[in-house]
Design a protein that fits this description.
The complex is a heterodimer. By secondary structure, chain A is α/β, with parallel strands linked by helices. Chain A has a domain of about 100 residues. In chain A, about 15% of the residues lie in helices and about 35% in strands. Chain A has a six-stranded parallel β-barrel. The termini of chain A are far apart. The N terminus and C terminus of chain A are likely disordered. By secondary structure, chain B is α/β, with parallel strands linked by helices. Chain B has one domain: Rossmann fold, CATH 3.40.50.150. Helix content of chain B is about 30%, strand content about 30%. Chain B is built from seven helices and nine strands. The chains are: A alpha/beta, B alpha/beta. At the A-B interface, strand 10 and strand 11 of A face helix 3 and strand 3 of B.
Chain lengths: ~200, ~230
């Protein structure tokens, strides 16, 4: 055993740095925000009543339960808030989820809002809003569709507004006829080849 | 109602007695307000002439403001917004319970009454075309009830309507506590939560006329099971 250890020590200086990955890493200090962020398992254990369970939050930003933000939040991706937010939240074409620990004192605008925690402020959800059991919402709601679970607390008004039909993203955009962009054939074929 | 009474007895006896949900979470003898129905709670569907009158008075109108004092339920939101009205929600009994608990005596305190009304009915005068009070008024002491009726008068628009339900013309220590869900303009789904202490006031036609004397008109519908539905017009 000691022979092997000796050999390793002798070999060590000549090793390239990146091979250290194979060695057992020293215990890293805990990263608080990562630790506090809700995990998939905690999501699946949330009380959802008769509603569909929340899907995994792949590709969405998260504000963990130990985080407090005062100011404006503007996001171009889905957002999960499990901490405290005071100010405004705008996610025009995206989904906002207020987690069970989330406390939002803010005006909210989003495509879709799912509330499991507390919202105090007016909410505009262009497509739909879900207020889950144990959620608390105090404010006025403007939305195309609302789902409210028994046990949720809501104080305010609900204005149902028809959502404007959107152009499907798969439809090709009409090319402006006045200003065609010339694409060199060689460059185009190179790009195709790379694909 | 006979079947419902039997089920209610089982409900109050506790879990395991009838397969229904158990008593409220405090487990004590004193009835406690439960905000929302849970699994297995007793419910029944009933015809409601009061509801019919209430929405009949708004026929062919849209964009009205309707306040529901029974809190927000999916059925009531769907029904009212499908008629093109704006839905307002207030969980009146929850605030009532948070403010006064089981203390009926505190309901005569003017400061407490003012505090309660600021929490529960703080709306501009003439805000609503209709108020669905359901059975929220019958648990209150006389001073609080009079102040609440006065506040409701102010937040209603002229020619606005109020629908209230009182369970019995007899003095009772407790009455069943329901939440009401609108099925259609004539049908209510009543979900029983248990029983709740009252101030033992008598709610007959005479006392209700006195309570709503500042309103323009009061109309009563007495159901077979001693439910008194009241439509009041400002």
């Amino acid at each position: 055993m000691s022979v092997w250890n000796k050999q390793r020590r002798e070999d060590e200086p000549s090793r390239p740095l990146n091979t250290n990955i194979t060695r057992p890493a020293p215990p890293a200090p805990p990263v608080e925000t990562k630790k506090e962020a809700p995990t998939l398992s905690s999501m699946s254990s949330m009380p959802v009543g008769r509603m569909e369970p929340e899907p995994a939050r792949g590709g969405s930003a998260t504000i963990g339960k130990a985080v407090k933000i005062a100011g404006q939040i503007y996001s171009r991706e889905d957002l999960y808030v499990d901490g405290d937010v005071e100010g405004t939240i705008e996610l025009m074409d995206h989904k906002l989820t207020i987690g069970p620990n989330g406390k939002v004192h803010a005006g909210v605008k989003a495509r879709e809002v799912v509330a499991l925690g507390t919202i105090q402020g007016n909410v505009e959800a262009s497509e739909r809003i879900e207020i889950r059991k144990d959620a608390k919402l105090v404010g006025d709601i403007k939305t195309a569709r609302i789902v409210i679970e028994d046990g949720a607390y809501f104080k305010g008004s609900i204005d149902i507004v028809k959502s404007e039909p959107k152009v499907a993203p798969s439809q090709p955009r009409p090319q402006p006829a006045a200003a065609p962009v010339p694409v060199p054939m060689a460059a185009a074929s190179t790009a195709d080849a790379k694909r | 109602m006979g079947l419902l009474s039997e089920r209610l007895k089982g409900f109050l006896r506790g879990p395991g007695s009838s397969g229904q949900a158990g008593p409220p979470a405090n487990g004590g003898n004193s009835p406690r307000f439960v905000s929302r129905p849970g699994r297995g709670e007793v419910s029944e569907t009933r015809q409601s002439r009061g509801l019919d009158q209430f929405f009949g008075s708004f026929r062919d109108q849209t964009g009205l403001s309707i306040l529901d004092l029974g809190g927000a339920s999916q059925e009531n939101i769907n029904f009212i917004t499908s008629l093109g009205h704006k839905f307002y929600s207030e969980d009146f009994l929850r605030i009532y319970h948070e403010t006064f608990g089981e203390d009926i005596a505190d309901q005569a305190n003017p400061g407490r009454i003012d505090y309660f009304l600021r929490r529960s009915l703080e709306y501009p005068d003439g805000q609503f075309d209709g108020v669905l009070a359901w059975d929220a008024l019958e648990y209150m002491g006389p001073a609080l009830l009079a102040a609440t009726a006065d506040r409701l008068l102010h937040i209603l628009k002229p020619k606005g309507y109020l629908l209230a339900i009182f369970h019995s013309a007899e003095r009772k220590q407790t009455v069943p506590c329901y939440s009401f869900r609108i099925q259609d303009p004539r049908t209510l789904h009543a979900i029983l939560h248990g029983e709740r202490a009252t101030s033992q006031q008598l709610f007959n036609n005479r006392s209700l006329e006195k309570l709503f004397q500042k309103f323009e008109s009061v109309k009563f519908f007495l159901t077979r099971d001693s439910l008194r539905e009241v439509i009041v017009r400002k």
